[in-house]
Amino acid sequence: MTEPSTPPLPGDPSGLRLRISYTDDLGDTPQADTLERWDIAILHEETEVGTMTFYKVHLDRGRNAFRAMEEESEELYETAQALLDPETGNFTEDAGGQLEYAGSALLVMDRVTLDVPWRGYGLGAILATEAIHRLMAGCRAVACSPGITDLSDDRLRSRAEWDRVNTKIARGWERVGFRLYQGTVYLLSPASLELEEQRQVLRAKFAKLGASWRLSQARCTRP
Q1: Which of 4, 91, 127, 134 has the fewest CB atoms below 10 angstroms from its CB?
Q2: What CATH number is attached to the domain comprising 25?
Q3: Residues in contact with 1: Cβ distance below 8 Å, sequence separation at least 6, in sequence order
Q4: How many domains, the chain?
Q5: Which domain covers residue 35, as residue numbers?
């Protein structure tokens, strides 16, 4: 099946920036010590064109991490069910056996969303990989559940289109180094050489996208 053509990018992708922030409400609670929510604004010339949300889950402080994730959201609960022991809040023996020790925390990529004009070029994976590299210090694993987060597109009312887009999203994360672990949960080791290798590949792709956009603009302005 032929995929829909991708419209031209609305601007030079080289101008995209990430603004990463963590808001500490100074809540002296075990929940606050266990779960950190990191919000990322994707900016182009200071205009927000997308967002990302990550959670850094500390398994060695605060409360039982499984219970903290269960109470935070259904999405985090599904991740906890796949990776953590409900009794201890630590990685299950099976999950831990697949991970090199690079820290004790769990980084969850909860949501990655780009405005419609910026989609279709693989920018979500490029930008999320950069965010992961900045947030993964002290983490033993990075987890995600690839899938559609924006349900406003009328095309997605078709089951076939829904499945096609979900499969495309999952393949994008697999190229970064995520591997299906259980159910819909994908797992990535921060110590993976593949992650660093793919980061370089994605950075080269990002530079190429910028060069192609500038070339297309130069052609349009020629007399």
Answers
A1: 4
A2: 3.40.630.30
A3: 164
A4: 1
A5: 13-218
